[in-house]
C-alpha cells in the first residue's frame, strides 16, 4: 500500500508564525499545534482495478512560541523530558511539530536539529501512536533598505528509516493544486464538535431536537471554555504583577550592591593614599638633609648688613666690605685693551678656593665675558644695605 504525507497550514496560522519570528530578537523556537488525520483512498484506473493509498494530513492550527532558545534540550541534542512535561502538561496531545527560526541563515537542518527532531518524535510517539512529528525550519532576509522581507520555510520529519526527509506543505489562500480532487477538511475523532455530536446521539433523534440539543451542548461547552480562559487570564495578570515586583526588588538590590561596592572602593583608595603619604614622610625623615652653601653665605651677608645698619653706618666704600662677603667680580687681563669678567668667582667664597692653588685669577671659570676697560675712571661703589637674595642667586650691588 502506498502512502502520502502532507502538511496543511492555514493563512492565519502562517501569519501568526511569521509574526512571532519577526518580533523575536535573533532566534526563536516553539511548537506547532494541530491535528493529524489519516484515511485510505482507493484509486481505480484503467491499468489497475484496485490501488489503495494511505493519505496522512497534518493540519496546523496555531503555534506555541517558547520564551527562550534551548529550553527543553541539552547542547548535545538530548531532550529534557522533565521540562517538556512541565511546559506541555495540558497540550501535549495537540502538539504535532516543532519549529526553529534563524535570521539570515540557511534553512537546511543541522546535525543537532536532526537529533532534536528524533528525540521529540520519540517523546510524542506515545501520544499519537505513530511517527508523524514534523519539523519546520524558517529564515528571512531583508533588502538593503529594509523595505522587503523575504521568508523561507520548509517542513520535514524523521522517516521510518531514521533519515530526515522533506514533506510537502500546502498553505491555504496562498496556493492550491488545480489538478486532482479537492477534499474537504475532516475533523479528527477527538475534536470537540465530534464529541458533542456523539454525546447528543443525533442519529436516533428528530432533526429539530437534534439541532437544539447540539446548540445547547455547544453553549455549555462555550461557557466552560470561557471560564477556563478567564481563569488563565487572571493567572497571567498575577504572574505579570509578580514579575514586575520581583524586577523592582532586583533593581533595588543591584543599586544597593553597586553603592556598597563604590563606597568600599573609595575607602580603599583613601587608605592607600594615606599609606603612601605615611611612607613618603618616613622616607623623607630617613634621608640626610642637604644644605646649600650659597644660601648660607647669603644669610651671613644679610646678618652682617643688618648689624652695620644698626650701628649707624648707612654707606661704605669698596674697602669697607665685610670679610665674609663675596669679593667683587675679578677682572682677568686678556689683552691690553679688554678685560674679562670672572662671574663664577663672584659666586664663590674665598674659603672655597683650594689652599694649594697659585692661580689668583681663576681661569677655570664657567662663564666669562668681555667688559670695557675703565681703569682710569674712578667710581665710588655704593653698597645697598637691603640685600635681597632669591634662591641661589648672588646678592645685588
Fold topology:
Layout: E1 2-9, H1 11-23, E2 28-43, E3 51-65, H2 81-87, E4 95-101, H3 111-128, E5 134-142, E6 149-158, E7 164-171, H4 192-200, H5 207-286, H6 293-310, E8 330-333, E9 339-342, H7 343-346, E10 368-371
Helix pairs in contact: 4-5
Give a description of the structure:
The protein has 397 residues and is an alpha/beta fold. It has a domain at 2-182: 3-Layer(aba) Sandwich (Cytidine Deaminase, domain 2), CATH 3.40.140.10. The protein is 38% helix and 21% strand. The chain contains seven helices and ten strands. The protein has helices spanning 11-23, 81-87, 111-128, 192-200, 207-286, 293-310, 343-346; strands spanning 2-9, 28-43, 51-65, 95-101, 134-142, 149-158, 164-171, 330-333, 339-342, 368-371. Strands 1-3-2-4-5-6-7 form a seven-stranded mixed β-barrel. It is elongated, with a radius of gyration of 53 Å. It starts with a strand and ends in a 26-residue tail after the last strand. Residues 303-333 are annotated as: Disordered. Residues 303-314 have a biased composition (Polar residues). InterPro entries: FAM175 (IPR023238). GO terms for molecular function: microtubule binding; polyubiquitin modification-dependent protein binding. This is BRISC complex subunit FAM175B-like.
Amino acid at each position: 500500500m502506498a502512502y502520502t504525507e502532507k502538511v496543511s497550514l492555514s493563512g492565519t496560522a502562517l501569519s501568526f508564525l511569521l509574526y512571532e519570528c519577526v518580533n523575536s530578537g535573533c532566534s526563536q523556537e516553539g511548537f506547532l499545534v494541530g491535528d493529524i488525520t489519516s484515511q485510505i483512498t482507493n484509486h481505480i484506473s484503467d491499468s489497475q482495478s484496485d490501488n489503495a493509498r494511505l493519505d496522512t494530513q497534518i493540519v496546523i492550527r496555531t503555534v506555541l512560541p517558547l520564551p527562550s532558545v534551548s529550553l527543553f534540550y541539552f547542547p548535545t541534542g538530548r531532550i529534557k523530558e522533565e521540562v517538556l512535561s512541565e511546559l506541555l502538561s495540558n497540550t501535549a496531545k495537540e502538539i504535532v511539530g516543532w519549529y526553529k527560526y534563524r535570521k539570515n541563515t540557511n534553512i537546511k537542518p543541522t546535525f543537532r536539529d536532526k537529533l532534536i527532531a528524533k528525540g521529540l518524535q520519540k517523546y510524542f510517539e506515545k501520544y499519537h501512536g505513530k511517527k508523524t512529528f514534523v519539523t519546520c525550519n524558517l529564515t528571512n532576509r531583508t533588502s538593503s533598505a529594509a523595505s522587503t522581507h523575504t521568508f523561507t520555510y520548509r517542513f520535514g520529519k524523521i522517516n521510518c528509516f531514521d533519515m530526515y526527509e522533506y514533506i510537502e506543505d500546502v498553505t491555504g489562500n496562498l496556493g492550491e493544486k488545480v489538478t486532482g480532487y479537492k477534499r474537504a477538511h475532516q475533523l479528527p475523532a477527538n475534536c470537540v464538535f465530534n464529541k458533542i455530536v456523539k454525546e447528543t446521539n443525533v442519529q436516533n433523534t428528530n432533526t429539530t431536537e437534534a439541532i437544539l440539543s447540539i446548540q445547547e451542548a455547544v453553549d455549555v461547552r462555550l461557557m466552560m471554555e470561557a471560564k477556563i480562559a478567564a481563569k488563565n487570564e487572571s493567572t497571567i495578570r498575577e504572574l505579570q504583577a509578580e514579575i514586575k515586583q520581583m524586577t523592582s526588588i532586583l533593581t533595588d538590590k543591584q543599586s544597593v550592591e553597586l553603592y556598597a561596592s563604590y563606597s568600599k572602593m573609595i575607602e580603599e583608595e583613601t587608605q592607600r593614599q594615606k599609606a603612601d603619604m605615611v611612607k613618603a614622610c618616613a622616607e623623607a625623615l630617613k634621608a640626610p638633609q642637604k644644605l646649600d652653601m650659597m644660601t648660607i653665605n647669603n644669610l651671613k651677608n644679610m646678618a652682617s648688613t643688618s648689624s652695620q645698619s644698626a650701628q649707624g653706618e648707612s654707606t661704605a666704600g669698596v674697602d669697607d666690605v665685610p670679610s665674609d662677603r663675596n669679593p667683587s667680580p675679578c677682572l682677568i687681563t686678556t689683552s691690553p685693551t679688554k678685560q674679562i669678567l670672572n662671574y663664577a668667582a663672584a659666586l664663590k667664597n674665598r674659603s672655597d678656593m683650594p689652599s694649594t692653588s697659585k692661580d689668583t685669577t681663576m681661569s677655570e671659570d664657567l662663564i666669562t665675558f668681555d667688559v670695557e676697560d675703565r681703569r682710569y675712571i674712578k667710581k665710588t661703589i655704593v653698597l645697598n644695605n637691603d640685600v635681597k637674595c632669591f634662591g641661589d642667586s648672588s646678592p645685588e650691588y
